[in-house]
Design a protein that fits this description.
The complex is a heterodimer. By secondary structure, chain A is of the alpha/beta class. Chain A contains 7 helices and 10 strands. In chain A, helix 4 packs across helix 5. By secondary structure, chain B is α+β, with helices and mostly antiparallel strands. Chain B is 71% helix and 8% strand. Chain B is built from 11 helices and 4 strands, in the order ααβααβαβαβααααα. In chain B, helix 1 packs across helix 9, helix 2 packs antiparallel against helix 7 and helix 2 crosses helix 9. Classes of the chains: A alpha/beta, B alpha+beta. The interface between A and B is medium-sized, with 27 and 21 residues. The complex binds adenosine-5'-triphosphate (ATP) and magnesium ion (MG). The site of adenosine-5'-triphosphate has 11 residues of chain A, from helix 1.
Amino acid sequence: MVILKDVKMTYPGTRKEVLRDIDLTIEDGEFVFLVGPSGSGKTTIIKLLTGEIRATGGQLSVNGFDLRRIRRRNLPRLRRTLGVIFQDFRLIADKTVYENVAFAMRVVGATNREIRKRVPYVLELVGLTGCEDRLPRELSGGEQQRVAVARALVNSPHMIIADEPTGNLDPAKSLEIMMLLRKINELGTTVLVVTHEKELVNALSKRVVALSDGCLISDGMDGYYGYEIQ
Amino acid sequence: MRFNRFFYLVKEGLRGVFSHGFRSFASVMIIIACLLIMGSFSLVSLNVDSAIRDLEEESEILAFVDETLTQEEARSLETYVRNTPNVRDTVFVTREEAMESYKGQYEDDSIFEDIDASVFRNRYVIYLNDITLTEMTKEDLKAIPGIADVVAYERIAEGFVTVRNVVSAVTVVLIVILLVVSLAIMANTIKLATFTRREEIAVMKMVGAGNGFIRLPFVVEGLVLGLLGGGIAFLLEWGIYDVLCQKVMEFPLAGNLFTPVAFSAIMGPMLAIYLGVGFAVGAFGGALAIRNYLKV
Ligand SMILES: Nc1ncnc2c1ncn2[C@@H]1O[C@H](COP(=O)(O)OP(=O)(O)OP(=O)(O)O)[C@@H](O)[C@H]1O
Ligand SMILES: [Mg+2]
C-alpha cells in the first residue's frame, strides 16, 4: 500500500519544485496508470517510492515503510517488497536470462533449490520458457522486457512499479507487456505503471492518475487518459 | 543458505579478476614492486640490527684498576662493576693474564719476549646490554673508586647505531609511502571494475541487495589480487635475497665482519607479513573502491 500526503520535491541544488502537494493512495491489489507530459514528475514519484531520492516535504509511506524517516540500511528491506521495471530493461549483459532472474533471488538469500524451483515458473509466466540460456543481446526488446518483468516478479513483491515499460517497444509488444502486467495484477500484485501510451491506457480501463507540471490534476476510475496531450 | 550465497559472491569476485585481465595483472605487478621495495629495506634493516647485536655480544669495554691497589683489592671491586647499570657480564683479568694474552697475539715477535707484567694493569673486561649507552656506562664505571680509566671503542658502536637509525627511518617512511601507493592503486583498479559494472550495481540495489552483498565480490577481487601479489613478491624476495647474500659473502673478508641473517630463519614471519599486507591492501582497496557506490 502506498500513501502520499502533501508530498513536495525539489532536487538538491535546484530551486524548482518538481512535485507540489501530491496526495495519492494506492490500495493493495490495485492497478494504477500514472500519466502526464514529459517533465511532469512521473519518474520523480517512482524514485521517491523506491527510496532513490528523498522528498523535501509531506508524508510518504510504501508497504509500511515511512520513507521520510527510513534509515539507509533499511532501504534494501523496502526494495524487496517492490519489483521495479524500467524503460531500458536494465538487464546484466553478460548473464544469461536464467541468471538475470536468479540473481534477484540470490540477493535476498534464496537457496539454490528455491531458485531452481521458482525461476522456471516465473519464466513460464512471462512466456520465456526455452530462452533460459540466452544472453540479453540475443533477445528482442519485448523479450528483454519480459525478462525484466520476470526479475521484478521473482521475489513475489507486494507491488510492481514500471516506469514506461513499453517506451522502447512497438505497439504489439507494448500491448503484450501491458497484458502481462494485468495478468500479474490479477494474480494479486499491486501494479503501478507510468506510461505515455494513450491507447494502451484506454484499452485496459483501469484507474488513471494524471500529473501535470508537478501537480496531480486528475485521478479517476473511468479508465481513460485523464487529460489531452497538447 | 548463507553458504551458497557466499560461494556465488566469491565466484563473482573471481570473475572480476579474470574479466579485467590486464588491469588485474598491472595491479598485481604494482603490489609486487611495492612489497619488494618494502621487504628489501626491511631486510637490510634487519641485517644491520643483527650486526649490531653481534657487535654488542662481542664488543667489550675495559676498566683499568688503579695501580696502587693490590690484586685482592682490585678483585673486590667486581661487585661494584657488576652492579653498574647496563653491564651484562664482566671478567676480572690480572696483569699477568693480560700480558700472556698480549704476548700470545704477537707470538712471532721477539720484541715482547721479556716484557714485564708491571707494565700492564689489572682490569675488568665488561660486556654491555646496550652499546648505545656506552658513554653513560663509561661515566658510571669511572665513578667507582679504584677504577682509574675506562676504554671503549665507542666510535665503531656509534657508527653502527647511526646506520641502524637511518636505515630504520628510511624503512618506516618507505613502508608508509608504499602502503599508501599500493592501496591507492588497488582501489583504483577495482574502482575501474566498479565503473564498468555500475549498472549491475544499480540493478543489485534496485532488487534490494544490501551493502555487504554488493561489496563482497569487489573485496574478493581485491583479496585475490593482493594475495597473489604477496605470494609472488615473497618468492621473488627469497630468490633475490639469497643471491645477494652469496654475492656479499664473496667479498674478501666479508665473512669475518658480518654474517647475514639466513632467509630460512625469517621465512615464516616474512611469508605471513607478505600475505598479510597483500590481504589487507586487497580487501581494504576493494572496500574503498566500492564505497562511493553504496551511498544511495
Ligand atoms: N536529478 C535531477 N536533478 C534536478 N532536476 C531533475 C532531476 N531529475 C529530474 N529533474 C527535473 O524534475 C522534473 C520532473 O522530471 P521527471 O523525470 O520526474 O519527469 P517525467 O514525468 O518522468 O518525464 P518523462 O516523461 O520525460 O520521463 C523535470 O523538470 C526535470 O528536469
Ligand atoms: Mg520519466
